[in-house]
Amino acid sequence: MNLPKFRSGQEINSTLLNQLSDGIRRNQITSVIGGTFTSTPGGTAIMIDAQTRGGSGSPAVCPFQVTTSNDGDDWKFKIEFGLIAGKIPTGMFAGGVPPLIMAWQDGWILAAVTFVTDQVSVDTVSFTVNEDIPANTETIAYYPIAYISTGLGEPPTQLIQNLCATPIPSVCDLLFAPPTP
Questions:
Q1: Dmax of the chain from CA atoms?
Q2: pLDDT digits (tens, 9 = 90+) for 2-20
Q3: Please, are residues 92 and 102 in contact by the beta-carbon 8 Å criterion?
Q4: Does an H or E element contain 52, and which?
Q5: Which of these, 49, 39, 40, lies nearest to 72 by C-alpha position?
Q6: Sheet-wide strand order for 43-48
Q7: What pLDDT does residue 54 have?
Q8: CA 103 – CA 76 distance, rounded (Å)
Q9: Interatomic CA distance for residues 119 and 117, integer angstroms
Q10: If you write DSSP's letter for every residue of 102-137 in order, what string do you get?
Q11: Coil, helix or strand for 158?
């Protein structure tokens, strides 16, 4: 983008201001194919819709869909309601009312599934945001739900990549620790 340069002591005239305005308009997001966007004074959020599968023409269901849920300039995201291994994740309520809203932080949104020690049953499910996907432990397995990040630019944009899959927890995903002799 070629925008005019303003220098100290330089007269600001309508030609330079028009060049600046035109440059901003050329680079403004006005639509998204396969998604939606929301502009606020704090930035622009781009939400990519779940892709249509099977040629039926209807969009596929996106379990645990992550969307923006900003409170003014305070960036937040919302995770749609769902069950994992028959459990309601910590912070969620039946039917999703009120919704699970968390503070925006770039990284992987993960379902952290804790298993009952020495059993195959799930104890708890919760959501966390981590820069990387941590290694599973002897009792906790991590399953990615979405990846969120802040796009570069002025104003900054909120980017969300939903994985649109329901985790199927298994003790086979846990770190194996051989029994002590």
A1: 83
A2: 667 777 887 878 887 787 7
A3: no
A4: none
A5: 40
A6: 35-40, 43-48, 157-162, 140-151, 107-115, 122-130
A7: 46
A8: 4
A9: 5
A10: EE--SEEEEEEEEEPTTSSSEEEEEEEEESS-PPP-
A11: strand
